[in-house]
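In line with agreed milestones, work has continued on tokenised descriptions of protein folds. One protein thus recorded appears below exactly as we store it:

>
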Amino acid sequence: MPEPLEILSSVGRTPLVELRRVVPPGSGRVLVKLECQNPTGSMKDRMALAVVAGGAARGALAPGGRVVEYTGGSTGTSLAFVCAALGYAITLVTSDAFSREKRDHMRSLGAEVLELPSDGGRINRELIQSMIAKAQELAAEPGSYYSDQFNNPDAADGYAPLAEELWAQSSGRVDAFVQAVGTAQCLTGVARTLRGLEPRVRLVAVEPAESPVLGGGSPGAHKIEGVGPGFVPPRWRADLADEIQAVSTEEAMAMARRLAREEALFAGTSTGANVVAALRLAARLGPGHTVATLACDSGLKYISTELYASPARA
């Protein structure tokens, strides 16, 4: 009889599925890697494990130390999960702009959570920067490890296995990869690995249409949690993506609801944005091509939000 797994070994090795009903005729295949099936329901489990392990290996995170981070919720939940498993304390700075489920989940895993007020629940540059500033202040306390998701290179390394899994599961048949950008760490790690396997693979970055800063536009407020901080992430490079697509909050939410009803794929708004962009690209590339993207997190993180709160939504 096989030995039981240690909880952290359950991170990764997520399924890859093909969308059937939302893909129009004449389009290429669209594959979705179900990162929502990681332990906390998010792809961020991968980066959290890499970031905590990296800090401990360098001695920046000492035994009995405290991790400090700013978060929209999924990164914080994933870090709280890893810290609970390894016995570290954690303090997280977030906001009421992010779902109640995420904030409750972080606390349930033992995190100390500080919530900053938002402007009517909207996500914008000022909110993210105030969260970062508060986290930096707290991280100055002795015994703290500032995991700093926007700048920590360990985060991108945590996504390399995702790309390797995707390549193996698709039998090396990936023409393009689409991913919404928050910190740019996921796209960085996946791009580096996929381009090493196939230099011709096309990388597409997705951002909120209300805040199209990667495409040279002005920052604005939106409600796609986890992406679009309102500034160009420090790890972003101009050559990271071959293309940048803007998707509105309305489009992303509508697609997330369609995925639930038509594909039985229950995910969040960033996943909706990913699929909107992936469908556009698959239509351009046509039959015989494969576009891959991620179900970034589970719809269970958004039950109380306008994404899923009303059963009467179209």
Remarks:
- Strands lie at 16-18, 29-33, 66-70, 89-95, 112-116, 144-146, 176-180, 202-208, 243-247, 290-294.
- The longest strand covers residues 89-95.
- The mean pLDDT is 96.
